[in-house]
Design brief:
The protein is α+β, with helices and mostly antiparallel strands. It is 17% helix and 30% strand.
Amino acid sequence: MVWRNRINILQTPQVPAQYIFRVSNDCNEGCTNVGRTGWHIDGSFQNAPFSHSLYHIIAVPRQSNTSFLPLTDLINNLPEKRRQLWERLWMVSDKRQGPVHPLIYKHPETGQPVLCFHLGMTEGFLLDYGSSEQKLCDPQTSNNILKQIKEEVLKNVDLIYQHVYKEGDLVISDNLAVGHEASPDTQLSRDKIGLRVMHRVTIKGKSCPSK
């Protein structure tokens, strides 16, 4: 395994190792507002998104969950017309100028359909990328697609697992198979819910999403 952290520049003095990303609801303890930009997988802006994400809770506040959703189940529950559209879409990452990835592709290990997506860090979408019919979606269409994805997530609430942290918990997630989002209460102030500190590590991906 190759361990890699996405944002070294934001590390704080409390971090025990360079590859650990420390997050918190207190800016003096770690990076704030992490995971609150919408449902996503980690590293969608890279050629090969992270293969796994690990979450180790250090300080547990009174409220602080992470929501997880199996992406294959989400795709299999799509209405046929919507799935046909999504199969033709490729996501364009935001200002990080990352690569273009198919929205739906096969998981490199299981071969099951999964999503490469980030509701808060997507510049737009391409339709039929690489073909003679390739077309860049206009901003309104791209926003509508992002709304569609969120809509499908909320329709599948019965598939969502809410992890309620206890001190010392270590969660290991297949980042390519499971989308996630931090709950809104993770960013409530320390005065309201107590201190939240989590150490996150991501494992470097080996495969570029492809059809």
